[in-house]
Design brief:
The protein is of the alpha/beta class. It has 2 domains: 9-122 and 272-280, Aldehyde Oxidoreductase, domain 3, CATH 3.90.1170; 156-263, TIM Barrel, CATH 3.20.20. The chain is 43% helix and 19% strand. The protein has 11 helices and 12 strands. Helix 1 packs across helix 4, helix 3 (55-65) packs antiparallel against helix 4 (94-124) and helix 8 runs parallel beside helix 9 (224-234).
Length: 281
């Protein structure tokens, strides 16, 4: 992806902060044992089956430490990989490789874990015209990377932050004095170019939202029977998004209701990192 480059200031800062956290004033172990002139050849391998994601980030980590390091990805982003398969090779100053090893692996493991889980969710509903989307339940400071990994896994991104779409939730509705009042205020005080989504908890609220006209309606913690009724009532007037308490076991039954979107916070807030390691030859 083009944004995963040295020109992306946000990506660059994330990597620099991670290196500062780990290296501090220096790697006292490596600096005391390994000569700056000693060369090394590292191999990064998967310890289990999964989806590879974050290889460009791993490369940038090593380049930040020493621009002469040669990082060669051996698989494509988003590719399914098997346990013991080589993901990348690294050549260059051994002390620089060691200093970047943990941070590069942390990014790779986290992002590959997200892509792997996302792919599993997407495959489960591939027979239905529904999209899996992520949420803002991401690791603070790492949202751009985690949402990228979601896309690599085959799903779509929900809004990136509070700035790029209006999502009226229960607390907004309470403070505004009701669903209709909240929607009217949002329309009055925002640009016509901004999409408006509102969260509803029952059919009565759904009807109120449809009367006022919104782009997306989030069905919060509804059972599948109520979702089916909502789909019938909506009849294409707005996109319908299932949200709240979404688990893998519920996916297929939710997709069968005719819903348009299923948002899954677990893709980023409850994911297990993929087992990936590096060995220097």
């Amino acid at each position: 992806m083009d944004f995963l480059s040295n020109e992306n200031i946000q990506i660059s800062k994330i990597i620099e902060q991670a290196l500062l956290e780990d290296l501090g004033s220096g790697d006292i172990t490596t600096d005391s044992i390994v000569s700056p002139s000693q060369l090394g050849h590292g191999t990064i391998k998967a310890g289990e089956n999964g989806i590879a994601a974050g290889l460009p980030i791993a490369s940038l980590v090593f380049k930040k430490i020493n621009s002469s390091i040669d990082f060669q990805a051996k698989v494509e982003e988003g590719q399914s990989v098997l346990a013991k398969e080589t993901l990348a090779t690294i050549k260059g100053p051994a002390h620089a490789i060691l200093k970047g090893e943990r941070i590069a692996l942390n990014f790779l493991q986290r992002m590959s874990g997200i892509a792997t889980m996302t792919s599993k969710y997407c495959q489960a509903v591939r027979a239905y015209p529904v999209r899996i989307v992520d949420t803002r339940k991401t690791t603070p400071g790492l949202r751009i990377l985690e949402k990228y990994a979601v896309r690599i896994g085959g799903a779509s991104n929900h809004r990136f932050g509070l700035y790029d779409a209006i999502l009226i939730k229960d607390n907004h509705i309470t403070l505004a004095g009701g669903i209709k009042a909240a929607i009217r205020l949002a329309k009055k005080n925002s640009s016509h170019t901004v999409k408006i989504e509102i969260e509803v908890e029952n059919i009565s609220q759904l009807k109120d939202a449809l009367e006022e006209g919104v782009d997306i309606i989030m069905l919060d913690n509804m059972d599948t029977a109520t979702m089916k009724e909502a789909v019938k009532i909506c009849n294409g007037q707005a996109l319908l998004e299932a949200s709240g308490g979404i688990t893998f076991d519920k996916l297929k039954s939710i997709a069968q209701t005719g819903i348009d979107l299923i948002s899954v916070g677990a893709l980023t807030h409850s994911v297990r990192s993929l087992d990936i390691s590096m060995e220097i030859i």
